[in-house]
Amino acid sequence: MDLLNNRSSITEFVLLGLSSSQEVQIFFFAVFFLVYVAIVVGNLLIVISVIFDSHLHSPMYFLLANLSFFDLCLSSVATPKVIADFLRKHKTISLWGCMAQMFFMHFFGGGEMSLLIAMAIDRYVAICKPLHYKTIMSPRMLIIFLILSWTVGFIHTTSQMIFTVGLPFCGPNVVDSIFCDLPLVIKLACTETYNLELLVIANSGLLSLICFLLLLMSYAVMLVTIWKRSSSASSKAVSTLSAHITVVTLFFGPATFIYAFPFNSYTVDKFLSVFYSIITPLLNPIIYTLRNQEMKAAIKRLCSQHIGSWLNR
Description:
By secondary structure, this protein is an all-alpha fold. It is built from eleven helices and three strands; from the N terminus they run αβααβαααβααααα. It has helices at 2-7, 22-52, 59-85, 95-128, 133-136, 139-164, 182-186, 194-228, 234-260, 268-290, 293-311; strands spanning 12-15, 92-94, 174-175. The chain has a three-stranded mixed beta sheet with strand order 2-1-3. Helix 9 packs antiparallel against helix 10. The longest helix is centred in the C-terminal third of the chain and has 35 residues, at 194-228.
């Protein structure tokens, strides 16, 4: 830590936020607060339902519960501070607070990216190799998927942050966003960062784009397989796949745009960052619950059990 402080003459960054108008910031405070509460409640409901409802003890819901946990963690990295900053005239974050934000954003983001790939594999096996589903998607395989997700997330963020923490920052220290993110902070370093910029583009941008395209291709194969069959489960499979495709698009779309072309100045990047880190974790549980009868039934059972036990006290 002393190395970075010795090389940098600034100790904090100034965040510009979304607006300089006090009235608009109060409006954003109310909106973001409600959104964050919905994120916490929605994702916790999914996690708790999968844990306590035996009807959901299957590979698909195991992965979905972990996706909700990643969403909860991803949104909690920066959102509480963002909400508090809407009530502050001067929005600042310490040098190491900024580094921590970037580390955990990419840690949970990389883990979620890996988990979405695991969920696509699960659906591929269920649709294209149904007779071998229980054998392939065994509890051991699920644990391997989960360990890989955490490992990939750690490697993804460490490979970028290990170079970022050593950068000298001597001004300016203004970040045109509501939280710290790699492309914006790297541009503020008072040294040559071309190689690091290429690393970020390759590690975050191109990787997101490649995974996105591969996932879309795999889902296309699954849809073709479903259409070739005339079974009663086809409509359910299509509904499940459409939910997966929507979530994958919402996650990888903004991430690809932000990190594949990160060092050009686009005003839309600020709002895409909001979408990627706050709106997507809100939409994921909505998409999976509204389009999934089993999940809706499990949440209803969970709520009725707790309400019934509370009334019987």
